[in-house]
Write a structure and sequence with these properties.
The chain folds into 2 domains: 170 residues, P-loop containing nucleotide triphosphate hydrolases (Rossmann fold); 98 residues, Helicase, Ruva Protein, domain 3, CATH 1.10.8. It has 13 helices and 11 strands. The strands form 4 sheets. It has a 5-stranded parallel beta sheet. Strands 3-4 form a two-stranded antiparallel ribbon. The chain has a two-stranded antiparallel ribbon with strand order 6-7. The longest helix has 17 residues. The chain is globular, with a radius of gyration of 23 Å. The structure holds adenosine-5'-triphosphate and magnesium ion (MG).
């Protein structure tokens, strides 16, 4: 219509820097890379990516041998990040994580030697075997993204993500995480035993891995600027009042409010406001990863079990009857209207 409107001249192509695809595409191909190196575990992969986008931390609960370490290893590879694995033991000291000041005789000064927490991805295996002092050093790191050693404060890397594992069957000699510690995690993901079809796939994947046909290097690697951009974009994903209201009704049901409040009689310790905030942030990350600019009630109902179950503690009677907090969240979801 407007024949006077002229197109601006095309910008000269910058041949020195090949154009990087949009960051959402990069994240999708990072997700696909992870799926190629792991059989199943799709939910865990999605949660790990959402955690890095939102700056959250993750607990993985599962029996030995279910590829927890392999998953976190692959995750660190696609993040192109420093990765460290710490096996928690009862004799672990806070300084084993944070680092320590060492006296250097020739200069007569103390120099700080950073510990494993100064990595981007920290896998804390069997976190509940670590004594409370170590758990609280981790708490500061997770909450503040900094640590204090010998009275001085040091900032940690960015991104910084703690992935902790817990074994659901062994409880002897463990220090269960206190509520304050659990509340710092964004996601609690349980990994299950594979069925026969998946077991076949795992065998094929692992047995072919060391052959000439395998291409273990073909993995999308994100850059720090991709993660920063993803964070910015995910933060501006729209959350409607109706979706916010759905979050509030679910979370406060754990405290006895609303139609589903009756379910909370088995609750000893309800979900805190961090539960609502993490649920909203996780929904933004999920929407962004799926190419949407707004969250939906489905984001909330899909994420609620992994965000809320770990931060609700059931009373003794419910625990004795074998009720789990995951079952409680499922019941609250069933009895809460979406809009
Ligand atoms: N779903 C899976 N996809 C790919 N490999 C798998 C899967 N499940 C198990 N494996 C293989 O099983 C082995 C054990 O995996 P890994 O060491 O990561 O388990 P884990 O959960 O960390 O165990 P642990 O609790 O004993 O540390 C690895 O060789 C891994 O490749
Ligand atoms: Mg392991």
């Amino acid at each position: 219509m407007n024949s006077f409107r002229q197109q601006p001249p095309p910008l000269p192509a910058d041949r020195s820097a090949p154009e990087r695809p949009p960051v959402q595409e990069l994240f999708n191909s990072a997700r696909d890379s992870m799926k190629q190196h792991l059989v199943g575990h799709h939910r865990l992969i999605e949660r790990l990516l959402a955690a890095v986008i939102t700056g959250g931390h993750v607990i993985i609960e599962g029996s030995p041998g279910l590829a927890k370490t392999r998953t976190v290893n692959t995750f660190a590879t696609v993040l192109n990040a420093d990765f460290v694995r710490i096996q928690a033991t009862p004799d672990l000291l806070p300084a084993d994580l944070t680092g320590t000041s060492i006296y250097e005789q020739h200069s007569a000064t103390f120099n700080f030697m950073p510990g494993p927490l100064f990595n981007n991805v920290v896998l804390m295996d069997e976190i509940n075997r670590a004594p409370p002092k170590v758990q609280s050093a981790l708490l500061e790191a997770m909450g503040e993204q900094q640590i204090t050693a010998s009275g001085k404060t040091y900032p940690l890397s960015d991104p910084f993500i703690v992935v902790a594992t817990q074994n659901p069957i062994e409880h002897e000699g463990t220090y269960p995480l206190p509520e304050a510690q659990l509340d710092r995690f964004m996601f609690f993901v349980d990994v299950q035993m594979p069925d026969p079809a998946l077991e076949h796939e795992i065998l094929d994947l692992v047995l072919n891995e060391n052959t000439a046909h395998s291409d273990a290097t073909a993995v999308t690697r994100l850059q720090p600027q991709d993660i920063k951009l993803a964070r910015q974009q995910a933060q501006s994903v729209f959350i409607s009042d109706a979706v916010k209201d759905y979050i509030v009704r679910l979370v406060t049901a754990t405290r006895g409010y609303g139609a589903a409040g009756a379910e909370s009689k088995v609750v000893e310790h309800a979900a805190s406001p961090r539960g609502s905030i993490f649920l909203a942030r996780a929904a933004q990350a999920r929407a962004w990863l799926n190419g949407r600019d707004h969250t939906t009630p489905e984001d909330i109902s899909v994420l609620a079990p992994d965000v809320l179950s770990g931060r609700i503690i059931l009373n003794y009677h419910a625990q004795a009857r074998g009720v789990t907090s995951r079952e409680l969240v499922a019941r609250i979801l069933d009895s809460t209207a979406v809009v």
